[in-house]
Amino acid sequence: MKALALAIVVLVGGLLISATVDFPDWGDPASPAALHVSPRYIEKSLEETSVPNVVTSVLADYRGFDTMFETTVVFTAGVACFLLLRRREPRPEPTRVYRHQATGVIVEMSQPPESEPAPEVFQRIDDDWTPHDLIVMNVCRLLIPFIQLFGLYVIAHGHHSPGGGFQGGVILGASVILIALSWDLRTAEMRLHEVTTGLMSAIGVFIYAGVGALALALGGNFLDYAALAPLLRVDPIAARSLGIFFVEVGVGLAVMATMVFIYKNLASEGRLDQGL
Amino acid sequence: MSEQFPALVVIGPLLAALMVSVAGWLRPRLCLPLALLGLGIAAAASTGLLAQVLAHGPISYRLGGWPPPWGIVYHLDNLNAVVAALVSWVALVNLVAAHRAVLTDYPDKIGPFYTLYVLAVTGMLGMVVTGDAFNLYVLLEITSLTGYALIGLGGGRAPLASLNYLFLGTIGASFYLLGVGYLYIVTGSLNMADLARLLAPLHGSLALTAAFAITLVGLWMKMAFFPLHAWLPNAYGFAPSPAASLLAPLMTKVMVYVMIRVMISVFTVEFILREVLLSQFVVWLAVAAMVGGALMALGQRDLKRMLAYIVVAEVGYMVGGAWLGNRLAMTGAILHIINDAVMTFCVFLAAGCIFQKRRGTAFEDLQGLFKKMPWTMAALAAGALAVIGVPPTCGFFSKWYLIRGGLEAGHWGFVAGLIFSSLVNVVLFFRVFEIAFFEPLDHGHGHGETGGAVALTEAPLSMLLPLMAAALGLLALGLATGPLVERVILPIIPAGLG
């Protein structure tokens, strides 16, 4: 079976590689991909959307509809994790948790053992005694606000420099996961409650689709930010730029919340109690 | 407002899904009404679109106001308008039927369940109406992801079946994406109409043939075309019944639609007809799907799994019809997309009704059901007659076109395979009816609850009415075959087909 699979992989791989003979060279300025749609993006983006970063204008405006659904994919992943993993019933009592000293692997025992394992091999840990590391905790406590500030900057500055909603959202989400890692899951849960994250991820996507629907309600096509101009009291080009900013905020919110949401459900097997 | 119908078909359910998710956290009672609202908007808009397209010809809708190929366009002709209407109506009717089962089985997860349900429909509708090859992939991701989660929620081995589906589905979707990537490298465009224009001078190039092959294999994996079907029986067999009666009728049909769309609108008929060797090969694979699906269905001892193998065989009908290379067979294939969606819906919904009462669909659970659930069983019988292909149900007419197409192409293997699998369907369903009609309920029922015989009655009205609607739809579609073929299907078949 393995040999057969290997043969198929080699065959298909060979086929795909042999097809590349017909491809233009990488980076060839005369290749179809460089001549067909991209010149317009590069030449007209600033003039049509007043966004200097072409990547942002293509992702959030010219092909903004795809990006809206990519954000929906992130949201869907969060809901799917919740649907499959979240369990409301508490852990079967009494459980005991041990950490294997040599490897750091955490072992959970639903039935308490008759005699405690040797403490130099397995260290008992529980809610009363969690081995907090003073340095790690305080370094993270100092760092996290700056990480979050940087995340906001990346979202807001996506028009001008590499960045945008996805990247900034990931940085923000990582800062909350860092709280969970350096302190514990309950602290993170207290800072950003499950219901809040669930609502935020839906609302983030809703901001994106809502901006599009608002344009539709104001007489444009769906996601035609220029139609927002009368509402924002700016000219249509500036409205496109602002529209991109609004949807980026939505993306950032959705990505951040969904990351935290998925982490919490995965790390604690859907119980949201002790976690990793 | 009517010029915004193409956008509403997709964003109506999308916005509704997000609101359902919020309601799931704050007011779970609002989930069902919001989901109904979203799918209702989609159904109304897609029906309006179908009327517009039939009256005034194809519609093009620019998302974000950008002209193609720079922006994304929705391009609607008869083919996708009719499939979009079909998807949204089946999903809406199934949602009504789903509610009781969701309340019974997942009372604490109503919000996420409906969110994913509505998102799955959003994804399918988006794939159907789009005119952009990459946009199709993004919506495919959404449908797949929701499908994995909904299937994984089922009992028993459902999580494992879902994981298996996830692996194969991801490979299939990646293949499609790789094919689109190849096309982008050689043309620089993602718009389907633009691609068709730019690809014409490239016919015969190895890169194009490779792109075609991997795109097709990817789509075949997603539609469970033999021999890439292995994930389907377990996935649909173990899925929770409201999810099974959504995904089984629609998912494979939408993917067959995508295949036909890619064949005629991107690569064009001229390109495909050149590849005569390939089309012969594909038709033989379709014959294998029909025969293999039917034979494997014979080995099943569970109604839902039996139906899942019938789906595998049905995919063979449609793919074979699309590849026979003449107008009659293509008409049959497109007609069968519509008919098969409704008949698969009918039989899976009937299985869901049975599951709701008996908590199982193994053959032993079917004993005595004609006495206890006469309406459900009558609908199942109607669905069975349609699957077998008895006139005047709709199944007869699409098979009729497929057989005529097979005869015209001189492909005797296809005709024989189709007739053989229809005959096996007769055996399959009469075996089910024999158990349900002749074997008494309280006799040999393996769950040790003979008292359950008294409690068992007909399925709740909220499930029964949708089931009746589906059964009547089978007859209505059968009777409407003439106008459907004349007005909807024939105008979209490209002139290049013989």
TrEMBL record, chain A:
Domain Na+/H+ antiporter MnhB subunit-related protein: 135-260
Keyword Cell membrane among record annotations: yes
Gene Ontology annotations for the cellular component aspect, listed alphabetically: plasma membrane
Keywords of this entry: Cell membrane, Membrane, Transmembrane, Transmembrane helix
Record Pfam families: MbhE, MnhB
Topological type in the membrane: Multi-pass membrane protein
Domain (MrpA C-terminal/MbhE) ranges: 32-97
Transmembrane intervals: 67-85, 134-156, 168-185, 197-222, 242-263
Record localization: Cell membrane
Superkingdom of source: Bacteria
Family the entry assigns: Belongs to the CPA3 antiporters (TC 2.A.63) subunit B family.
Name listed for the protein in its UniProt record: Sodium:proton antiporter
TrEMBL record, chain B:
Gene Ontology biological process: ATP synthesis coupled electron transport
Entry-linked InterPro entries: CPA3_Na-H_Antiporter_D, NADH_UbQ_OxRdtase, ND/Mrp_TM
Keywords of the record: Cell membrane, Membrane, Transmembrane, Transmembrane helix
Subcellular location per the Swiss-Prot or TrEMBL entry: Cell membrane; Membrane
Membrane topology, record value: Multi-pass membrane protein
Domain NADH:quinone oxidoreductase/Mrp antiporter transmembrane: 132-421
Sequence intervals crossing the membrane: 6-26, 33-59, 79-98, 110-128, 165-186, 198-221, 254-273, 279-299, 306-324, 330-355, 375-398, 410-430, 464-485
Protein name as it appears in the record: Cation:proton antiporter
Organism lineage string: Bacteria, Pseudomonadati, Thermodesulfobacteriota, Desulfarculia, Desulfarculales
